[in-house]
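Long-time lurker, first post. I've been practising inverse folding by hand and with some scripts of my own, and I keep getting stuck on stretches where the structure tokens seem ambiguous. Below is the full token string for one chain I'm working on. Before anyone asks, I'm not after the true native sequence, just a reasonable design that respects the backbone. If someone could post their per-position residues I'd love to compare against what I wrote down in my notebook.
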């Protein structure tokens, strides 16, 4: 998304870039995991993550999930630490996995 906006943001002053950076850091603090990253960390497939997310109705629940639009037709899914715990339960993994 940054490259799509680059032409519009190159001339920004530092305080605007700082604000954007702070917003990204805030988002990443609350929803640090992309689907693939979460799957890798838990040692399961992306399909297993998607299955548990659907069965536990996590998508759309801001405690667990955030959908981030990346283009007109695309998006990425980000999950919180609370979601990670819920995935562990749903996948039958020990808390240390």
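-- Answer (accepted) --
I ran through it position by position. Result:
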């Amino acid at each position: 998304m940054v490259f799509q906006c680059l032409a519009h943001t190159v001339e920004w002053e530092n305080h605007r870039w700082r604000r954007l950076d702070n917003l990204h850091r805030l988002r990443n603090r609350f929803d640090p995991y992309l689907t693939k990253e979460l799957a890798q960390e838990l040692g399961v497939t992306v399909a297993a993550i998607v299955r548990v997310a659907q069965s536990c109705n996590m998508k759309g629940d801001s405690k667990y999930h955030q959908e981030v639009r990346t283009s007109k037709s695309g998006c990425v899914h980000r999950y919180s630490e609370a979601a990670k715990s819920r995935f562990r339960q749903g996948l039958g993994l020990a808390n240390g996995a």
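A couple of notes from the structure itself: The chain has a mean pLDDT of 81. Strands lie at 33-34, 65-69, 75-79. Happy to go over any region you disagree with.
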